[in-house]
Every structure is written in structure tokens, then in C-alpha cells.
Amino acid sequence: MKKSILTLASVFLIAFSANAQKVEFEEYDLDNGMHVILHQDKSAPVIITSVMYGVGGKDGDRKRTGFAHFFEHLLFEGTENIGKGEWFKIVSSNGGRNNANTSQDRTYYYEIFPSNKLELGLWMESERLLHPIIGQDGVDTQNEVVKEEKRQRTRAYSNILPEISKNIFKVHPYKDPNVGYMDHLDAATLEEFLAFNKKYYVPNNATLVVAGDIDIASAKKMIKDYFGPIPRGPEVVRNFPKEEPITQEFKAKAYDENIQIPAIIAAYRTPSFKTRDSKVLDMISTYLSGGKSSVLYKKMVDTQKQALAVQAVNISQQDYGVYALFSLPLGKTTLDQLVAEMDEEIVKIQTDLISEKAFQKIQNQFENRYVNSNSSVVGIANSLARYNVMYGDTNLINTEIDVYRSVTREEIREVAKKYLNKNQRLILEYLPKKK
């Protein structure tokens, strides 16, 4: 009877998610190619104006890496109508807040305002696009800001992903860090920054999301007034080199003066987040290390007490992903022992079907994530922009969960067999560096 009650509860959870959480939106294109997405939510007097540009760390000259991250800072410097240093003052004095972030694939800017400040938010984002001031003074200022940001990134183990990427990618731009190399930024000329802006920060490489307590008709008029006159830019064409498959395990070492305990990482190159296989790898990660009751944590941390920490993560991106198994040793446990223990669990997934109980637990975890991701207007705006820019399908905000729901235990086994093999990986020793 208990099993029946649990199953019934799962059915109700899925039904609730499928119906109550659907996100309604409207989307269209301006004549200049800018994609617009509107989402109305009158539950609170708040609006968000956001723009996601299809430009990230992978874009640009490989001798001038880090430009997209640099522009994340530079485009707050000011415009023809917003003075230097005034951007944040305008936002805060009008009861708002704002931020931006950059990945290898895209850059995202947003403002959150009281709903009566919608026009202000639209004007500011149109100013960023139409009238940015990119001068030597601003470049020099932000160069120092980026350097200081990089100096402050001294968290233990924070450089693991760049170290994995530079080893596992040989020719694709993902091999270079998202923040770039400081000597590239130091050597860049003002003309190069201007050219980068002209190429990537154009309306036809951008998606505008307006969400929250809005009137659709008046929002459309304001969007047309502020963004419609911005001229279309050249089409962004990408032709990145393709990676050859990894067919033999290889090893590398990296050093970090901010750590005292070494780490071991087994990393595999995986497909784009657009693929179904990538979704299955997400589920495998959750099975292995999604919480303290997960397979690897219970085994290596709780029971055998071999590891201080263990994690499996699918870092999927637009062109390629990285699947990484990470662990820190406890006591006299060696790095090789940690790899062997993680491998043992991978082989089990490749050989046998995971249990029905474990499979149902994963499904419930993904249902909860889905509900939580759509629980705020800020999260919804981000998701709408991301699904449009990165996947080319805005409605994935409602349908991506169906992919996870349709994954089978057999698929989990087959995907593990396809990608998580010893001859397809990098073994990275991440070691303390003597100061």
C-alpha cells in the first residue's frame, strides 16, 4: 500500500508541474532582427527588462580572448545620454537593481524595477545598444577592474574548469578561459574593441525579454519606439573547428597555490546541450552525486570514508560539453583509489539498469528543479532568453521537462556506455603549489 501511495504522489506531482507551471509568453521580431519576448505576470508590481546577446568567451580572435567578458563590464561605462559612472546610480535611485553575466556562449544584461519604471528599463537597454561610449579612458578603467576581479578569484579549486577545458579541447575556442588572458586584453587596441562591438552587439544578435507586471500593448509600443530605430548589423557567422574524438586516456597536472588538499578529476568530452544525450547525462550526474543520499556520496564519503567530497557534473555548452567526476581524498586515500571507486560506479551504470526507486528519485528531483526555475519572474525571464538564444526554441521553457520525463533506465545505461569510457577521457591531477 505504501508503494502505491508513493506512486500516486509522483503522478500528482507530474500533473501539477505540467499544468500549473506552464509559462505563457508572446514573441516576435522587430524589422531590424531583434527578437522580443513578452511575459505578463501581475502577481507583483515588478518588471524585468533583459537582453541576451549571442556572444561569449568562444567568440572573437583567439589572440584577443576575453572580449565578451570585458564588454560585460565595458557596456556599463556610459552612453551618449548616460554619464560615466551614472548607470548604477540611475537604477538604484529608481528602486531597481541590475546585473550582467557572461558564459562561453552568451552575455546577459538585466534590470529589475518597480512596474512603473518599464520605460526607464527599456530606454537604458536601448542606450547600451545604440549609443555606447567606447573610448580609451573606459577601456583602461575596465581593464583594471577585470584584472582586480581576476586577482580576487582565489577560491580554492576555482580554476579547475579552465584547466580541464584547456586540456580536453584542442582546437575549439572552449579551450581558452571565458575571462581570457590578461596579456591579450593589455595588447588590444581601441579599434579592436570598437570592431568587436560593431560585430556582436547588434539587434539581430540579441533577444529582448520584458517580463512581469506589464501591459502588453503599451510595452510593444515602447519597444518599437526605443529599439525599432536601431540599425540592423551584419549577420554573425561562426565556423569553429571541430574536435577529433578522444580515443585514448591521457593525463595532465595543474597546480593551485590556494589549496592544501589535492583533487582528482576524470573528464569526458560530451555533446551539445541541445542533444537528448546531454539531458540523460544530467540525470546520470544527479544519480551519482545529487545530494547526500546519492550513490557516490554515500559510498565514498559516508560509508568508506575515502573522500572529503565527491561530485559528478555535466557542464554542457552550445557546441560541446564536459562531463567531470571530481573528488578530494580523505586521510591516506590515494588519487588513484578515488578514480577506481568512481569508475566502479560508472561501470555499474553501464552494465545494469539503475533501480526503479533510484530512477523515480531522479525524476522527482528534476520535477522540483523545473518548478523552482519557473517560480519567479526573474528566473522566467532568464529562461526565456536562454532557450531562445541558445536553443532556438523559446517554448522549451515548458517542454524541456518532457524530455527528462521520457528518459528511460535503458537510455541511462546506453548513454553511460557511449560517453563515459576510460579511453575517452582526461585524468587531471589538481595539486597544491608551493608558495
Automatic annotation (TrEMBL):
GO MF annotations, alphabetized: metal ion binding; metallopeptidase activity
Superkingdom of the source species: Bacteria
Pfam families: Peptidase_M16, Peptidase_M16_C
Identification of the protein by name: Peptidase M16
Residue ranges annotated for the Peptidase M16 C-terminal domain, each copy included: 188-365
Family to which the UniProt record says this protein belongs: Belongs to the peptidase M16 family.
Organism: Tenacibaculum todarodis
Entry keywords, A to Z: Hydrolase, Metalloprotease, Protease, Signal, Zinc
Gene3D superfamilies membership: Metalloenzyme, LuxS/M16 peptidase-like
Signal peptide extent: 1-20
Domain Peptidase M16 N-terminal: 36-172
GO biological process assignments: proteolysis
